[in-house]
Automatic annotation (TrEMBL):
The lineage of its organism: Eukaryota, Viridiplantae, Streptophyta, Embryophyta, Tracheophyta. PROSITE patterns: ANK_REPEAT. Keywords: ANK repeat. Pfam families: Ank_2. It comes from Rhynchospora breviuscula. ANK repeats lie at residues 100-133. This is Ankyrin repeat protein. InterPro entries: Ankyrin_rpt, Ankyrin_rpt-contain_sf.
Length: 155
């Protein structure tokens, strides 16, 4: 199942979930990544949709709090991020914090990814006052990356 998700084998995922819906709840024994986090890593939106169709309460984050939105932002999977932001019941992911207290917006700022930052800031649900475990707000983290941020067109 994990390989079918990673390799974007939608037909295989469909057949497996139709045969046994509990497969949607699998977590990799190697990486502790649930299937939805693996789908986010590769940007496999249709696979994620299929998993959520069969298992609406499938795990969305690793044990350390790293969600499928964190992964999609980190992996620069714009289409996957857009899917999450378009899907109202997934908006709870926007302000979820990982073990370091970072939200997806913190990750987007750390990666100096203007598109991801803009997409997250455009959401009414985004809470700009969420500080990580070090007390840093996303806006404060940008100053740490000024050299890298200077090379971007932030308009």
């Amino acid at each position: 199942m994990q390989l079918a998700v990673i390799w974007n084998m939608l037909d295989v995922v469909k057949v497996l979930l139709e045969h046994d819906p509990s497969l949607g709840y699998l977590v990799s024994s190697k990486t502790n990544a649930p299937l939805l986090v693996s789908a986010a890593y590769r940007g496999n939106v249709e696979v994620a949709q299929e998993i959520l169709n069969h298992c609406p309460d499938a795990p969305i984050c690793n044990p350390d709090g790293w969600t499928m939105l964190h992964e999609a932002v980190f992996s620069r999977q714009e289409e996957f991020v857009d899917y999450i932001l378009r899907t109202r019941y997934l908006h709870k992911l926007i302000n979820m914090r990982d073990k370091d207290g970072d939200t997806a917006l913190h990750i987007a700022v750390l990666k100096c990814d203007a598109k991801m930052v803009c997409a997250l800031l455009a959401q009414k649900a985004t809470n700009l006052t969420v500080a990580n475990n070090k007390g840093a707000l996303p806006e404060n983290m940008l100053t740490c990356n000024t050299e890298q941020a200077k090379t971007l067109n932030w308009v």
